[in-house]
Amino acid sequence: MSSPYKVAIIMGSSSDLDVMRAASEALQHFGVKVQEQIVSAHRTPQGMLDFAKGARQSGIQVIIAGAGGAAHLPGMVASATTLPVIGVPVKSSNSIEGIDSLLSIVQMPKGIPVATMAINGAYNAGLMAVRILATGDESLSLKLEEYELSLQEKVKKMNEGL
Predict the structure, then answer these.
(1) Is residue 154 part of a domain?
(2) Which of 4, 21, 119, 132 could join 98 via S-S bond, C-beta 3.0 to 4.6 A?
(3) CA distance 150 to 138
């Protein structure tokens, strides 16, 4: 029996949860089912590989991986699955303002792609996952169009307030 989840949000530590919850918020806004899980590339490497290799069979369609410090999680997961992986560099207590994490995630070798967001850019990671899913889901695509119109309205109201 497959999982009801479409997007997995994984992180190396519970300390990343405050940042990564924004991805959940974005996905839930569009009615996308979410699975959150701690998956450490360094402390549980076999668990990380098992997760990555079994993700597709469990119904996952996109993986969002947040990581601080050395930030190996997104790339290592991407190396063990053909699913799209979106990396979120997390500014954590063991990172250099998140820049080391950003560089770690964005500099993947040829053949192992990871879509990389801004430092702490988990909300946009959620939106990117929605865009990926919407390529095969017309109703989700329409929700995205409505969302974009709401952004335009926000800017219009900002200008009216000047």
Answers:
(1) no
(2) 119
(3) 19
Domain of residue 35, residue span: 7-137
Task: Record the tokens describing residue 9, joined without a space.
Answer: 């949000």
Mean predicted confidence (pLDDT) in 80-105: 94
Please report whether residue 72 resides in a domain: yes
Whether residue 91 is contained in a domain is answered as yes
Domain count, the chain: 1
Query: How much is the mean pLDDT over the chain?
Result: 94
Question: What's the DSSP call for residue 112?
Answer: -
| Type of residue numbered 111 | G
DSSP helix/strand/coil, 58: coil
Q: Is residue 33 part of a domain?
A: yes
Q: What per-residue string of b and e applies to 68-93 under the rule 16 or more CB within 10 Å gives b?
A: bbebbbbbbbbbbbebbbbbbbbbbe
**What pTM did the predictor assign?**
0.94
